Here is the input.
Amino acid sequence: MTGPRIDHVGLTVPDIDVATTFLRDALDARVLHDIVTEPLDGPDIEAALGLSRGAVVTRVRQIGLGDGATIELFEIATRDQRHAPRLGDLGIQHLAVRVADIDAAVRQVTDAGAVLLAAPAPLPGPEAGPGRMWVYCRLPWGGLLELVSRP
Here is the structure.
């Protein structure tokens, strides 16, 4: 390794099995392994993960997607859980996935339950070029997925 690179992206979802099925159907993802299978709770885990008092990490699963970074799915029970951030909110607010055929990918993710926010559009500015497209989709649990093609 020559320098830092993204290892994985963490997504908190309401149901790991539903999210796994969506990612498998929508993006051909595969389960690598389950990290947490028994609930984790208490002051130590709250402090280590920055969780609110009383939160319980019920499950954690590592998902593979192509040959890039992986996705770590978290299922957490907490009384103060909020909905997924919007694009205009501060912090990490979407997952972008590079695809070879944006039209095929749109069909696959919408068939799996995502909602297309607009039609695919040409990438703007310095990313513009033949076949270079992007589109945002709303995930079944409310987060954002961007599909991008750069042939």
Summary: The first helix runs from residue 16 to 27. The chain has three helices and ten strands.
